[in-house]
Amino acid sequence: MTMADSKPLTIGELEAGYSAYCQALRRLVADERSQERIERTHCWHNLQRLHDCLPQRYRSPLDLYQRYLRAHQAGLPIDQ
Fold it and tell me: Measured over all CA atoms, what is the biggest interatomic distance in the chain, rounded to whole angstroms?
């Protein structure tokens, strides 16, 4: 099965993976990947879909990225 053959994740499946997507984003920031490169990842797209569908419950991936980046640059542990 290729990615083109796979079905998009449901909102419930995205919600179940939220902490993993945030962890992946934190790891990418800690690895000092560029924002442009991070924006092409599955975790970014999944976080964006959650924010688009449920903005009152989930921050945008850009907000999370900026928060994690500030913490990383300040030498603080990156956590939610």
Answer: 43
In contact, 60 and 77? CB cutoff 8 Å: no
Tokens describing residue 80 = 């939610």
Residue partners of 78: CB distance under 8 A and separation at least 6: 26, 29, 30, 68, 71, 72
CB contact at 8 A, 10 and 32: no
Query: Per-residue pLDDT tens for 4-47?
Result: 567 889 999 999 999 999 999 999 999 999 999 999 999 999 99
The secondary structure of the chain in percent helix, strand, coil, rounded to multiples of 5, reads: 65, 0, 35
End-to-end CA separation in angstroms for the chain? 34
Count of residues in the chain: 80
The C-alpha atoms of residue 55 and residue 60 are separated, in whole angstroms, by 8
